[in-house]
């Protein structure tokens, strides 16, 4: 091989390396200037909190002239969770005489009264309750007249207990005779005098 051929090969090799380097750096610098490719933006479904139970803990509209009044109830007092908004209930108050009443009134014992009858339930539970919480309600909101609200307010004070009795659908009867019972009536025939 002649010296000229060697020079041509070496020159071609050097020229090829330089050209490759220039091409490499031009492509690399172009990639640095271009922003990264935009990923396709997928619209996600909005995150929705668990829906509130409309039939379980939403307040039914209050009839004009009436008021909403809430009572705290236990499972037993609240008819084991069977009450729903729109149900009709009677309110039974078990009244305990105070120590003063018991001391100064001979023979004063506990009594029970059918305090309110045919009362519409406006809501159960708390307005922020989720479906599972609403099924285990601890409050019942009733629709009452102002006077019924006063009666109920007196009945729930002190250590008196309030029980709700659930009416069957369509039952709007009003009891006029046996609306109060004294503890002594339960003992008749059980205890000998």
From TrEMBL:
The keyword Transmembrane helix applies. The chain crosses the membrane at residues 7-27. Keywords: Membrane, Transmembrane, Transmembrane helix. The keyword Membrane applies. Pfam families: RcpC. Residues 62-166 form the Flp pilus assembly protein RcpC/CpaB domain. This is Flp pilus assembly protein CpaB. It comes from Lysinibacillus antri. The lineage of its organism: Bacteria, Bacillati, Bacillota, Bacilli, Bacillales.
């Amino acid at each position: 091989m002649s010296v000229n051929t060697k020079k041509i090969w070496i020159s071609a090799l050097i020229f090829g390396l330089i050209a490759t380097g220039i091409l490499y750096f031009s492509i690399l610098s172009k990639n640095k200037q271009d922003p990264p490719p935009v990923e396709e933006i997928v619209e996600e479904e909005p995150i929705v909190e668990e829906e509130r139970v409309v039939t379980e803990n939403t307040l039914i509209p209050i009839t004009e002239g009436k008021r909403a009044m809430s009572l705290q109830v236990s499972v037993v007092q609240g008819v084991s969770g069977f009450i729903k908004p729109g149900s009709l209930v009677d309110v039974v108050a078990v009244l305990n005489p105070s120590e003063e009443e018991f001391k100064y009134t001979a023979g004063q014992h506990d009594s029970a009264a059918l305090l309110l009858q045919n009362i519409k339930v406006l809501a159960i539970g708390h307005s922020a309750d989720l479906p599972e919480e609403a099924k285990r309600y601890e409050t019942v909101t009733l629709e009452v007249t102002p006077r019924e609200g006063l009666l109920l307010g007196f009945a729930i004070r002190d250590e008196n207990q309030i029980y709700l009795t659930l009416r069957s659908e369509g039952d709007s009867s009003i009891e006029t005779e046996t609306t109060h019972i004294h503890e002594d009536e339960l003992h008749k025939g059980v205890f000998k005098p």
